[in-house]
Automatic annotation (TrEMBL):
Descriptive protein name: Malonyl-CoA decarboxylase C-terminal domain-containing protein
Lineage: Eukaryota, Metazoa, Ecdysozoa, Arthropoda, Hexapoda
Gene3D superfamilies: Malonyl-CoA decarboxylase, catalytic domain, Malonyl-CoA decarboxylase, oligemerization domain
Domain Malonyl-CoA decarboxylase C-terminal span(s) in chain numbering: 56-108
GO MF annotations in UniProt: malonyl-CoA decarboxylase activity
Occurrences of domain Malonyl-CoA decarboxylase N-terminal (ranges): 2-52
InterPro entries assigned: Malonyl_CoA_deC, Malonyl_CoA_deC_C, Malonyl_CoA_deC_C_sf, MCD_N, MCD_N_sf
GO cellular component: a single term: peroxisomal matrix
Length: 108
């Protein structure tokens, strides 16, 4: 789609799907809009599955030399082993450690 070529377009679609999922969870099962919102959700899900297929993802190794903004994002979103400090993240991505992420060209 053309949205995927616009700066911030893929992020817009991801955020839109998030909003639609919230809307679906709040919609009454008897709402006249339920079917339309479910169809929109299905269409967005299919589109995002295409955008996030393997050929559009880049595997990137994370090291202490990686951009600070990226290390900060990792520390904020780590769910299994919460990061307590910069020295904690430095140890995790330091020598003899392997940390990788998938990135998408269209997302910040």
């Amino acid at each position: 789609t053309h949205l995927s070529r616009i700066d911030g377009g893929v992020k817009f679609l991801v955020d839109l799907r998030c909003d639609i999922l919230v809307l679906l969870s709040n919609l009454d099962s008897k709402s006249p809009h339920l079917l339309a919102v479910q169809q929109l959700n299905s269409a967005l899900k299919e589109l995002l599955n295409l955008f996030f297929s393997v050929e559009f993802l880049d595997l990137q190794q994370i090291t202490w030399s990686s951009p600070a903004s990226l290390l900060q994002k990792i520390s904020e979103y780590e769910a299994v082993h919460p990061v307590r400090s910069w020295s904690d993240i430095k140890q995790r991505v330091g020598p003899y450690r392997r940390c990788f992420i998938f990135t998408h060209r269209s997302l910040p």
